[in-house]
Amino acid sequence: MDIVPTLQRGNADIGAPASQTRCSGVKPVPMLERGNQNVKFKETTHMHHENLVKMANDISAFFASDPDHTSAVNGMVDHLSKFWEPRMRKAIIAHANEGGEGLSDLAKDAVRQLAKKTPAPA
User: Fold this and answer.
1) Number of neighbouring beta carbons within 10 Å of residue 62
2) Cα 80 to chain center, whole Å?
3) How many CB atoms lie within 10 A of CB 109?
4) Is the distance from CB of 2 to CB of 17 less than 8 angstroms?
5) Contact present, 8 and 24 (Cβ < 8 Å)
6) Is residue 89 within 8 Å of 118, Cβ to Cβ?
7) What does DSSP assign to residue 82?
8) Angle formed by the axes of helices 46-63 and 105-117, to 10°?
């Protein structure tokens, strides 16, 4: 027997067999999609930079356990390249170019290395 949680016009009908459920009064909620023009990514806000700095410093704290500084920098660059969205990388590079306030030394070195590896915008 197929059991699914459903809603029936204001009455919670959780656990009813799928064949006995009606969802005529329930409309699906649209999900945000990439490229949705109504959702803006704020690249230049102070809070955004604070969040990126905190994340970069957390990542650098992990890689700081590597006794070889070059290996730690390369590991962090690899992480940022694989897991950070391009706009995030662009924003942290811009922040580092403006002095990198709040970034750890390892994070600054990694972001500088990332900047060399990242193609310039056209």
Assistant:
1) 13
2) 11
3) 20
4) yes
5) no
6) yes
7) H
8) 100
In this predicted model, what pLDDT tens digit does every residue of 25-52 receive, in sequence order? 555 544 444 555 544 444 445 558 899 9
- Look at the alpha carbons of 54, 55, 56, 58 in this order and tell me if their dihedral is positive or negative: positive
Q: Which residue has the tokens 């690249």?
A: 43
Tokens representing 82 are 């694989």
Structure tokens that stand for 25 in this block = 């009064």
Question: What amino acid is encoded at 16 in this protein?
Answer: A
Cα(78)–Cα(94) distance, integer angstroms: 18
For the record, the structure tokens of 94 come out as 């811009």
Is residue 51 within 8 Å of residue 34, measured between CB atoms? no
Model confidence pLDDT, tens digit, residues 81-96: 999 999 999 999 999 9
Contact assessment for residue 56 and residue 107, using Cβ atoms and an 8 Å cutoff? yes
22: tokens are 């009606």
**What pTM did the predictor assign?**
0.61
Q: Are 56 and 96 in contact (CB under 8 A)?
A: no
